[in-house]
């Protein structure tokens, strides 16, 4: 008699939203289904996988609500002031960099385009960071072999800067082609003003590397890599960006040692040519003459 009595099965019933969120956050904190097994013993891996996809997609759809530039002139001016306070570099509204998020080989005929110059498969993610270590813009759709400058040239942020919708400049490394809206360092400075420009540029732009290190420290799945479908990886990246900005907005300050997370994942920089006759070179020199000549 007792042997014939069984507990009612809960198979097929939906999981509580709180549990689904916690499972997803646990994956973000590990990047591994195996490491999650002891925490979700009563849930099969297939269900965990479906939960991660569903929750990540829901959060990713909210990214533009949290990852955005200030929408008013007053807000942008405040950003410029905060950047200026770092190392006296004027007119800055953001610092740009790309970072590689490891993935497994997608397979198929196009899988090699995801292999970057370090030899591992990745998504090359473009980020623009603000002075409070928040993301102002994030693009997560390009395979690992895509050059940083190509991503920027095909991004909405470039269009918004070029059309004057966003007034100011962003700071990038030598992987980006210089212009009147994206300023890069001089490879061979030949004046005190250019040296001062480089010093101020370097100190100000460190914030994007710091932000990426904190981001990957906060969500280790971005650092260790993910063995899930590419489209889900993209959703996870966008979700983690939104969650990072939410954390920053409520004053969740990360430990300083998290900034080291970004170093191991760096990919060698391809230096764009410096043509003294190019419009970008001329625009940069005019910027130096205007703001750094009397430093």
From TrEMBL:
Keywords: Hydrolase, Metal-binding, Nuclease, Nucleus. GO terms for molecular function: hydrolase activity; metal ion binding; nuclease activity. The keyword Lipid biosynthesis does not apply. Its main location: nucleus. GO terms for cellular component: nucleus. Belongs to the HARBI1 family. It comes from Papilio machaon. The keyword Hydrolase applies. This is Putative nuclease HARBI1. Its cofactor is a divalent metal cation. It holds the Pfam family DDE_Tnp_4. Residues 96-245 form the DDE Tnp4 domain. It is found in: Nucleus.
